[in-house]
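hey can u check if this looks right to u? its 337 residues, i copy pasted from the old doc so theres a chance i mangled smth
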Amino acid sequence: MSQSVDFTGRSVLITGACGTVGAELTNQVVAAGADRVVCLDNNESELFFLQQAHKDHPHVSCYLADIRDLEALKQRMQGVDVVLHSAALKHVGLCEDSPTQAVRTNIEGTQNIIDAALVNRVDRVIFTSSDKAVNPTNVMGTSKLMGERLMTAASLNNRNSKTVFASTRFGNVLGSRGSVVPLFKRQIEQGGPVTLTDREMTRFIMTLEEAVGLVLQSAMIATGGEVFVTKMPVARIEDIALHMVDTLAQGDIQITEIGAKPGEKMYEELMNDEEVRRTYEIEDFFVVLPAFAGDHEALYPLVKGRQKADRPYNSAVEKGMNAGDVAAYFTARRLLQ
């Protein structure tokens, strides 16, 4: 289980604060006692609603800003201790159709975060990455991989800076806007059919609260340059669909197969073969160290005496949950309530 994180006395800036992950980051950072919370997003309407949701917390400030705007980031990072960078273009199909936009936001925007943090001597910057960054087959995954590499390079190329840069990588966050749960729910409410790309497709899954809690935990334990890979259970997408139909449907709902979309994988990877050689296991994470970090245990005390990973972390290989396990997982976490 993730440990509680204390942000007392710290000023925290969250990019993409109106997204599913960003909004939950805001909730948990406020609950963790941060002295000041700065929320950035380029979605005016959603930012207004976020501001209203935290109107009783005078230390929470919401600002319109795009991570493509370096000067705006420099201004808003003044006096900030921790940056949690969750802003991104995340839909695989849309990034595939508009790759230049994905580059400008996910790659150039991440470099802007780095540059603004260095100027303001921020203590810690954590980049929220994705399983799609591992052996990417699409534009979105490739841009996320570049984001990770930019963070690692920022840590190793700015050794005179006090700023710690690191990434955290996790899979499908159930209930987030990009996950299958709201899609399947909407299809069931409309009377079906529920559409699957392939019945044998597998994914790493976790809840929003679990994902965000582990992002915050990694923010506090990072040394610099690491990628923290969250340990997650594996589920077949068909089993998720079947459980949702059984739980939510009022009548007969068909489940149909429509074929994989461009750039979509049958499985997901959270760690590949090349990374295994420099990966250590700690509690809730695997910690992937930089390829050119040198003496791992001397530079990264966190992994001293820890067991090294012995295989890639792949949803097609890891033992997955069966249909009963998926149902129990959803029920225990009240995911459909």
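The chain has a mean pLDDT of 93.
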